[in-house]
Design a protein that fits this description.
Structural class: alpha/beta
Low-confidence stretches: none
Radius of gyration: 19 Å
Largest sheet: 6 strands, mixed
Number of helices: 6
Distance between the termini: 29 Å
Order of helices and strands: EEEHEHHEHEEEEHEH
Shape: globular
C-alpha cells in the first residue's frame, strides 16, 4: 500500500504575513508538519503544495518534496482545500504515480504528533473506513449558546435553558490538523468528509486555531506545555 502526505501551504497569507513559514518556537511553523509526517514512518512521499518559491525552499530544507508548483487556479483566495488535493493527485497521476491512501496536513499545525498520525493511519486502513479527521470537543455545549436580540441576551435554543451540560450530546469541530483518506473513497464523493469518516479525537491542549498573533502566542504556550509533559521534542 502506498501513502502520500500533502501539506498545503499557499504563500498569500494576509492576517499573519508569511504565516506558513513564520518562526514558531525556534523554526518555521511548517517544519513541524513536515517533520511529524516524516518521522511517523507512515508515508512513502511527503510533499508540499505551494505557489511560493520561498516556502518551497524551506520545505525542501526540512525534508519535504516539492515536485511541482501550485497552479494559479489553486493559489487564489477562492480555491478550496478540495481543489488543491485534486490537483496534487492529478499531477502525480500524470507522472505515473498513484496512492492507496493520502493525508492532508495543514502547514500551521505545530501541535500535531506522530502518535496521532499513526492512530489515523491505523483507522483508515480498516475495512469499511473511508477517512479519518482530527476533531476536538467544544469546550462549552453549543446547545446552551446565547445570542443577542434587540440588545438583550437570550438563549439561541430555549429548550436547553435548564438542560444539564452532562446530559447534552457532545458536539465536535474540526481541529484544523489533518484529514486522512482512502483514495478510492475520497473520489467517490467530492467533499472533505467522504462516506464512513471516523474521528481522531484530540485534547484541547493539542489544538489551537491560528488566525491572529494572540492565537499564535497561545499555540506556542501549548507547545511548551506539551514539551514539559514529554509529548513533544
Amino acid at each position: 500500500m502506498s501513502t502520500l502526505c500533502i501539506i498545503t501551504a499557499r504563500g498569500g497569507s494576509k492576517r499573519i504575513p508569511k504565516k506558513n513559514i513564520k518562526e514558531f518556537c525556534g523554526k518555521p511553523i511548517i517544519a513541524y508538519s513536515i517533520e511529524t509526517a516524516l518521522h511517523s514512518g507512515v508515508f512513502d512521499e511527503v510533499m508540499v503544495s505551494t505557489d511560493s518559491e520561498e516556502i518551497a525552499e524551506i520545505a525542501r530544507k526540512y525534508g519535504a518534496n516539492v515536485p511541482f508548483m501550485r497552479s494559479e487556479a489553486t493559489a487564489n483566495d477562492f480555491a478550496s482545500t478540495d481543489d488543491v488535493l485534486k490537483e496534487v493527485l492529478s499531477e502525480y497521476e500524470k507522472r505515473g504515480r498513484t496512492f492507496d491512501f493520502f493525508c492532508c496536513i495543514y502547514p500551521t499545525a505545530p501541535l500535531i504528533s506522530e502518535a496521532r498520525m499513526l492512530e489515523a493511519y491505523e483507522l483508515v486502513k480498516k475495512d469499511g473506513i473511508g477517512a479519518t479527521v482530527s476533531v476536538v470537543k467544544f469546550g462549552y455545549p453549543p446547545q446552551r449558546a446565547y445570542v443577542i436580540e434587540d440588545g438583550e441576551v437570550v438563549f439561541q435554543q430555549p429548550k436547553y435553558e435548564y438542560a444539564r451540560s452532562q446530559d447534552l450530546t457532545p458536539i465536535y469541530h474540526d481541529a484544523g490538523q489533518f484529514y486522512f483518506y482512502r483514495t478510492s473513497s475520497y473520489f467517490s464523493k467530492s467533499a472533505l468528509l467522504c462516506d464512513h469518516t471516523v474521528p481522531v479525537i484530540l485534547d484541547e491542549l493539542e489544538v489551537q486555531d491560528i488566525d491572529t498573533m494572540e492565537d499564535w502566542h497561545l499555540a506556542e504556550l501549548k507547545y511548551k506545555m506539551l514539551q514539559e509533559k514529554g509529548d513533544r521534542i
